[in-house]
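REQUEST FORM: STRUCTURE PREDICTION
Request ID: SP-0412
Submitted by: Lab K.M.
Chain count: 1
Length (residues): 620
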Amino acid sequence: MAVALIQMKLAVTGRNLTGPRASWVFGGAVVGMILAGGTVAMATVHAQEPGTVRDLLAVVFGIWMLGWMLGPAFTGQPVLRAEQFALQPIPRRRLAIGLLGSAFVAVTTVVSLVAFAALLVFGVRLGTVPALVAVPCVLLQLAVVVLLSRLMGRLFGALSRSRTGAAISAVLSAAMLVVSSSGWIVFIALDSVLVTGFSSGFSTVVRALPSGWGVVAVEASARSDWTMTAVASTGLVLLLVLLWLIWNRSLGPVRWARPTVRGSAPDRAAPRGWAATSATGAVYLKELRTWTRDPQRLQGLIVPPVFAVLNCLVPLVFDSTVFLPFLGTVTALMGAATSANLYGQDGTAMWLTLLMPGSERADVRGRQLAWLALFTPMTLVLTAVGIAVAGQPDLTPWALTATFAVLGGGAGLVPLVGLDQLAPGADPRAAKNTPMDHSDVAGQAFVMLFQTLATAAPALAVVAAGKVLDNPSLVWAGIPVGVTTGFVAYLVLGRAAHESLVKRGPELLYLMQRGKRQQAKAGQGASFVKSMPRHRRQLLWSSFLVGCIALFPQALVPTLMKLSGNVAALWFLALHLRPEWQWPVIFLMYGIGALSFAVSALIVLTELRAARTRPGPGKP
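STATUS: Completed
RESULT:
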C-alpha cells in the first residue's frame, strides 16, 4: 500500500510542478539546503560556555520543528489526502501507513534530514557513544516533525477556506518576507551568543521542548548520565507513538471548521444612501465585503501591516528608531504591492462588468475608494504611533509626506497595474487560498513598488530641498505637496485604468478564461515579458532587483538619514565607511541604480519593438 501511494504521489507531483509552484519548490529546495548546511555548521562552532552549542542546536531544531508545523499554512494541503480514498475499501491503519510513507517522499524531508544530521555531527564531537545515540535520535526527530506536519496539514486544510486560515497564512507570509530581508541579524546575534551564552532560564526551556530532547540525550550520554539519556530518548518514542495514534484517528472527514461562504449574510441590512443609489457606491460596497470575506483578499489586507510592524522593529536590535515613523508608509506600499493583481484575483467575474456598458468607470473608482477606505485608517494610525514612539521630530515631515503621497499613488496604480499586468489564476470558487497556489505576481509586485515610490518622489524632493536649503517652511510644505500629488495620481491613473478596461476588457476576460497557457503563447494576448527569451527575462528582473537595492536602501535612505542628522549605520554600506567616503559611495549607489534601471528599460523597449513587428495569430 505504501509503495503504491508513493508511486502515485511521485506521478501527481511531477505533473503539478509547473508555473509558479515549480519556482517555489526549486527555490525553496535551494534555500532549504543552504539553511540545512548552516545548521550543520552550527554543530561545529566553538563557544566559551560548554553548554552553548547544545542550547544553540536545541533552538535551531525548535525553529525547524516550528517550520514543519506552520509550513502547511503556506504550501497548502498535501498531494494525497485521506478524503480521496474515502470510497476505497482500505482499512484506516493501512491507509495511515501508506499516507505517512508518502509524506516522507518530499524535498522537505531530505532537507530536514540534512539539517538534523547536525545532531550526529555534535555527537561525533563528543565521542563514539554519543554519536551512536545520535543516529536513532535523528530518525526519531525526523519522524516526529513529519507527523506533526501531517496533523497540522489536516488542521490547516480544514481552515484553508476560512478567515482564520487566511489570517494565519498572511502572518506567516509577512514573517517570511521579514526574515528573508533581515535574516542577516541572526549572524550578529550568533556571534554574541557564542561569547556570552544563553541565560539559564532560556536554556532550561529550550531543552525541555521536544525539539531539544535529542540534543539532551546525546549530551547526557557524553556525561554517562544514562538515566537522562533514556528519559529523553524514550520521550521521543512516546511522542511519536502519541502522534501516530492521533494521526490514525484523524483520518476521516474534516469537520473542524465551516468554510467561508461568499454571499449575503442573512440578517445584513440593505445598503442605504450613496452605496444604494450610485454604481460607484455599489462597487465600493461589494469590494469592502470581498476584502473581508475572500481569504485571498484577506491575506492581502493582513500582510502589509504585519510586515511593516515586524520590519520596522528590526532596527530596534541596534537601538535605532529611525524607521518607526515610516510604519504607515511601508504599510501603504505593501498594500499596493499585495493588490497588484486585483482584477486577476476576481477571475472571470469581469464579465459582469463588461455586460453593462458604461460601468467600467464605476468599477475602477469603486475599487479605488474601497482600497483607500481599508488602508488609509491603518496607515495613518501606524504613522501616528510610529512618530510618537520614535521621538524623532525631524523625521515627521518625511513620514507624513511619504504616507500621503504613497496612499494616493497606490490608489491610482492598483487598478491600472491590475489591468495592464494581469496574471490569470483560478476563480475564487476554485482557489486553494495558499500562497503557493496563487498566481505568479512577483513581477507585478516589483513594478507596483517602484511606480508607487516614483509617485511619491516629487513630494519627497520638496522636503529634501527644504533640508538642503535649511528652510523649515519648505520642509513642511512637502506634506500638502504629497496630498496634492496623491490626489492627482488617484484621478489621472484611475482614468487611465478606466480607459484600459474599456479598451482591453474582452481581451483580459479571454485571457482569464484560457488561463496561463494562453498567456504563455506569444502573439495571443501574451505579456511581452512572458514571451521574451528566458535569458533576457532573467536579465530584466536581475537588473531591476539590483536597481531597487542600490537606489532605495543603499542610496535614498542613507541620503535621508544624513540630511536629517539621524544616522544609524544598520545595513547601509556607505554609513559604515569613514565620513569623507560616505557621500561618494552614496552617489555611486545612485549611479548603479540608475544604470540598472536603464538596462531594464532598454530590454523592455527592445522587446516592445519586437512585439510590434512580430506577426499576430493567423498571419504569415
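NOTES: Confidence is low (pLDDT under 50) at residues 253-267, 516-526, 615-620.
Reviewed by: T.R.
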